[in-house]
Amino acid sequence: MNDDREQGTTLDPKWGADGLITGVVTDAATGELLMVAHLNEEALRLTLETGEAHFWSRSRGRLWKKGETSGNVLRVVEARIDCDQDSLWLRVEPAGPACHTGARSCFYRKVDAEGTLSRSA
């Protein structure tokens, strides 16, 4: 156990082999899960410095600020790191839908026991 990383007061992210950590994003007012994305060192630094969520797009292979084209930025109210510092939880105030499809949350479909998807409320 790395006592300093797990019990200390210094931010020391445990980056994956790809240089990323997972970011879980929830609405600060409602607790609703909005999205899951990834952050590299620069995305984390910009998120903390600007107070607006930045991520690393694995599909585009580049840094992006959430809402850079849509205007649907995520203002960070609180950032928390998990016990071994390999996941980040961002509590945010969204300026619009969090999902690029226009849905409020990226988790807008339910999966049933047969693997069929349906839109949820």
UniProtKB/TrEMBL annotation:
Q: What is any Pfam family matched here? A: PRA-CH
Q: Where in the cell is it found?
A: Cytoplasm
Q: What InterPro entries does UniProt report for this protein, alphabetically?
A: PRA-CH (IPR026660), PRib_AMP_CycHydrolase_dom (IPR002496), PRib_AMP_CycHydrolase_sf (IPR038019)
Tell me, in one coarse class, where this protein mainly resides: cytoplasm
Q: Which reaction does it catalyse?
A: 1-(5-phospho-beta-D-ribosyl)-5'-AMP + H2O = 1-(5-phospho-beta-D-ribosyl)-5-[(5-phospho-beta-D-ribosylamino)methylideneamino]imidazole-4-carboxamide
The alphabetical list of record keywords is: Amino-acid biosynthesis, Cytoplasm, Histidine biosynthesis, Hydrolase, Magnesium, Metal-binding, Zinc
Describe cofactor binding as the record notes it: Binds 1 Mg(2+) ion per subunit.
- Enzyme Commission identifier(s): 3.5.4.19
Q: In which pathway does it act?
A: Amino-acid biosynthesis; L-histidine biosynthesis; L-histidine from 5-phospho-alpha-D-ribose 1-diphosphate: step 3/9
SUBUNIT field: Homodimer.
Listed HAMAP family: HisI
Primary role: Catalyzes the hydrolysis of the adenine ring of phosphoribosyl-AMP.
Protein name, per record: Phosphoribosyl-AMP cyclohydrolase
Originating organism: Sphingomonas tabacisoli
